[in-house]
Every structure is written in C-alpha cells, then in structure tokens.
Amino acid sequence: MTRLFRRPAKRAKSGEEGKGGQPVRRAVRSALHRAREDIQVVCDKDPAVTNPLEVLLYPHVHALWLYRAAHSLYIRDHRIAARAITMAGRFISGGIDIHPGARIGRRLFIDHGCGVVIGETVCIGDDVMLYHLVTLGSVGWWYDATRAPGAKRHPTLGDGVVVGTGACVLGPVDIGADSVIGAKSVVMASLPHKSRVRPGQIVNRPSKGDGQDRPVPTATPRPLRVADQRSAE
C-alpha cells in the first residue's frame, strides 16, 4: 500500500550548519573549565574547605560568575542588563560590588568577600587574592572630571597580588606582580613587582602644590615569606 505521508529524507549537514554550534560549545566548555578553576583555587587556599561542594556556598563564587555574564553584556554595550545582573550578584553575595566593565583574570579568590568594591576600569591579573573590605577604586570624582573621556581611573593589579583586609588601592596605578598589600593600608602610587606594603601604611602620590614634590614612600621589593602572606590578612 502506498504511503500518503513519507518522512522527509535526512539531509547531510552543510559545512556552515555543522560549524554553527561550535562557538557555543567552545564557550560552554570554557565557562565550565573556568568554574572548575574557581572552585579549585578556593580548595587550595582556604584550609576551612573540607569538600569542594562547600565552595558552591562561598559568596564570591556567585558574584564572580554573575560578573562574567554581566561583563559579556557590558562589552556588547548592553549596559542596563549588565548592571541588573551586577546588582543581583551584589545582593546574592552579601555586598561584593564588581562593576561589569572591570577586567578580571583567572582564579581570583575573594576571601569572605563582604564589602569588596571593584571599579569600572580595574584590571586584575591571574591568581590574585583579595580579602574582605578591599576597595579598588578611584581617587575621587573631582580628579576623574579632569580626565579625558574613557581614561583609566582605577588600578591595575599584576599576577599573584594579595590585598589585605580593609586595604584601598586608588587611582590609575600599577601594582607589580606578586606584591602583598597589608591590611588597612592605602596605596595611591604604582609599586614594582614583589613589593610589600606594611599594614596601615600610606603610599601616597607626590604633591604638586608647593613646587617641591615629595618622594613617594614605596615598599622595598624583596622575596616574600610565609609570614608576609599571613600579614596581608
């Protein structure tokens, strides 16, 4: 008996159709790989972790993952949607405020996390660690108003930098790789790599009002010890 309805013959996928899903698959694999890195770095650096599943309850993980989604929208000029996602991340994480325009490298660890502020033009390298109440911000709107549109207003942190509890790094300064910035310190000048800023120290910019610029009290570069890492907390 002749069939009135026949199944359409399967067509071989053309080159364009076959390649259409590859960027999506690559993006998903990359996101999963980076998520595993985020979990692993917490397991490596936080002795309180006894099970990797605990890390899924760490507030900074949710803030970081939502930041990445917001950043992808931000660079496509979907600013309102990006800020909405950022606001959700701030609410879920208990106060971690990451601007969607910031550029953040791999394996960032924000210990405890509450009260951390990361500004729009911040650049963070790989394997950076921030403690709670850290501010990576600008020196003030009155300075920023004199800058050219789109100029950098926030700091750049090199790979492996550690910023201690309550520390502030302000302005378009460069913090060299593997530096340690102690708790409650204020840094407003660039530092070379492997610098150590003592807890409570103020590293200021030169003054320009009296015609005699004061030297910038930078930290002395030296190899880091275990004690130096602990003092950052």
Characterise this structure.
The chain is of the alpha/beta class and 233 residues long. Helix content is 33%, strand content 14%. It is built from 7 helices and 15 strands. It has helices spanning 15-20, 22-45, 52-55, 59-74, 79-93, 141-144, 226-232; strands spanning 97-98, 103-104, 109-110, 117-118, 123-124, 129-130, 135-137, 156-157, 162-163, 168-170, 174-175, 180-181, 186-187, 196-197, 202-203. It has a 6-stranded parallel beta sheet. The chain has a 5-stranded parallel beta sheet with strand order 3-6-9-12-14. Strands 2-5-8-11 form a 4-stranded parallel beta sheet, with no helix packed on it. Helix 4 (59-74) packs antiparallel against helix 5 (79-93). The termini are far apart.
What is the percentage of strand-forming residues? Answer: 5-15%
The rounded Rg comes to: 23 Å
Low-confidence stretches: 209-231
How can the largest sheet be summarized? 6 strands, parallel
Order of helices and strands: HHHHHEEEEEEEHEEEEEEEEH
Outline: globular
Distance between the termini: 82 Å
- Roughly how much helix do the residues carry, as a percent range? 25-40%
Strand order, main sheet: write it out: 1-4-7-10-13-15
Report the count of strand segments: 15
Number of helices: 7
**What is the mean predicted local confidence, pLDDT?**
84
Give the class from helix and strand content and strand pairing.
alpha/beta
